[in-house]
Amino acid sequence: LLFRTGLDQAALTKKWKEVLLEESLDLIRRTNAKISPIYAKEKAYIPVDMDVSPFDNSKTKKEGVERTYKGCDGYAPMFAYIGQEGYCLNVEMRKGNVHCQKGTPDFIRDTLPFAKKLTDQPLLFRLDSGNDSRDNLIIFLENHASFIIKRNPRKEKAEDWLHIAQKYGICCEEREGKKVYLGSIPETIQIKDQERTIRKVFKVIERTISRDGQIFLIPEYEFETYWTTLDVPAHVVVSLYHDHGTCEQFHSEIKSELDLERLPSGKYETNELILHFGIFAYNLLRMIGQESLKEQDTPLKKKVKRRRIRTVIQNMITLASKLVHQGRQWKLKISSTNKWLPAFGRLYYAFF
């Protein structure tokens, strides 16, 4: 009861959330945690992925729980992750019925300095079609930040894009009856008294024969388009954006492996504070997992780029041990037969 009351009182102070985010980033910076880039035509960029992830809190009467776009009652917080490791840069608690673009320009402005605190390398921001907004484009252009934003097709037709693709794109026939067009066209955006040119990258698919050989009476068309500042081939832009889907794994780890999806309090501000505490714990566990990959001293020999949060908790946080008092000292006793002992000892001295 005292702990819950303390959280309720702390949640009334907005400064707490800023402190948690800043301390989390400071911890990453002070420990020199590796932030891996992605490559576009041999140039390195640090990816910053922004996305909304609905938290299912159905059958509760918590403050702020509303109907989300996923069809469940809950919250819809916005996250920003950096690097291929997926460290969480920023988080913003939102009610379930809030559109993903509402408040996003301010969220981007807050996230930009956080990202620049962790790296001096060029940043590449990636957002989905829900954030296809001129406001976002202008913020990135004003801050000289590269981006890939999937366009919202709205009322655009696939047939119209097929004509554009046939005129400006490059055609590749992947198989009989399936043609893929890739290319880009320039677009001018007015920013104050200046005009800036960005690219509208497209991928158009024309199918006349199905995969199993069935001939269509009417051809089928698909298209996807993107805003970007990258000067790389269209297929590279499409591939880089598809990699943005990795952040769904980060959402899953926060929601299920840290058990944060069903937030505990009935008060909106308290749940917001708990989410920020959860992000601090997530980054700390991610750092431990990435540090454990630097040497092959764990029982898990499969080569991976990231250690899942669940694996870190099960094998390094809940390691079987006993606290003993001996020779006027407190000691942590771990069985010498424990296969995770070498990694645990290395991590202990690395962080403490």
Walk me through the structure:
The chain is globular, with a radius of gyration of 24 Å. The protein has two domains: 2-292, Alpha-Beta Complex (Transposase Inhibitor Protein From Tn5, Chain A, domain 1), CATH 3.90.350; 309-351, no CATH class. The model has no long low-confidence stretch (mean pLDDT 93). A hairpin with a 2-residue loop joins strand 1 (38-40) and strand 2. The protein starts with a helix and ends with a helix. Strands 1, 2, 6, 7, 8, 9, 10, 11, 12 and 13 form a ten-stranded mixed beta sheet that branches. With 352 residues, it is an alpha+beta fold. The protein has helices at 2-11, 15-30, 104-118, 134-142, 158-168, 234-242, 247-257, 268-292, 309-317, 341-351, and strands at residues 38-40, 43-52, 55-56, 66-67, 73-75, 78-82, 87-92, 123-127, 146-150, 170-175, 178-191, 194-209, 215-228, 322-326, 329-333.
